[in-house]
Structures are given as structure tokens and as C-alpha cells.
Structure to design on (133 residues):
């Protein structure tokens, strides 16, 4: 076949090429098994709503920054253990480096940091609080 490159008997080649020509012009759709499985049931109305909702874009991960923070925390812990093993006091050591998570959102009212969902709950409540510590 000149279209798909398959080999056929001489008497079947002409028949195949006519069918192959038609098939190559059509765009195939993706078969959705969940659509056919739910078709005709009471759940059909809910599936169409879920399919129409836009999917959230996955966030870019900042794995390198998280990895470097983790390495710093490990090194600080090893330095503390070595200092204690040599007979030193914990109070002699400087505080460990703070770990910053860039995924957190800072509250404009109390300056605390929360993840995205917790910040959405916290910020409206914090805005109305009159007595802050």
C-alpha cells in the first residue's frame, strides 16, 4: 500500500488502498470509556460538569531550593552534634539557619506565612481581628 506501507496480495491491494485513503483523511477521536460507562445512568449529569471545569495548571516545583535548605539543615545538625560531643553547650552555638518555603503566602496583617489554602481561610479572618499580640 502506498499510503500505509503494508503489503497485500495483488488482488486485494486496490480494495485496501481505497479504504486506507478514506481512513487516512479522517481524524480519529479519543475513546472515552467513562463517558460510555456512565451514559444512561443518573450520574451522567454530574460527569459533564466535571469535564467542563478547567484543570489547574501544575505548579513549578522548586526542588533545588528545597534540597539546598535540607542540606543546610543536615549540616547544622551535624555541627551541633559535633559541638556537643566535644563537651560544648547548645547555648554557645548560633541559631540554625531559618528554612524559607517560597510556596507559602505571607499574611499582610500579621506577617505569618501559610500555604495557599490556609492563607485563603486566614487572611479574611485576620483582617477583622482588633487585638493582635
Amino acid at each position: 500500500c502506498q499510503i500505509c506501507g503494508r503489503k497485500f496480495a495483488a488482488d486485494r491491494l486496490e480494495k485496501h488502498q481505497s479504504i486506507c485513503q478514506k481512513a487516512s483523511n479522517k481524524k480519529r477521536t479519543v475513546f472515552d470509556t467513562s463517558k460510555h460507562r456512565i451514559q444512561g445512568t443518573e450520574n451522567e449529569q454530574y460527569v459533564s460538569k466535571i469535564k467542563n471545569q478547567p484543570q489547574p495548571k501544575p505548579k513549578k516545583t522548586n526542588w533545588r531550593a528545597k534540597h539546598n535548605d535540607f542540606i543546610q539543615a543536615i549540616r547544622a545538625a551535624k555541627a551541633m552534634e559535633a559541638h556537643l560531643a566535644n563537651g560544648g553547650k547548645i547555648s554557645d552555638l548560633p541559631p540554625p539557619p531559618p528554612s524559607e518555603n517560597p510556596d507559602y503566602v505571607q499574611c499582610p496583617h500579621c506577617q505569618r506565612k501559610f500555604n495557599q489554602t490556609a492563607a485563603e481561610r486566614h487572611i479574611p479572618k485576620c483582617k477583622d481581628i482588633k487585638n493582635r499580640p
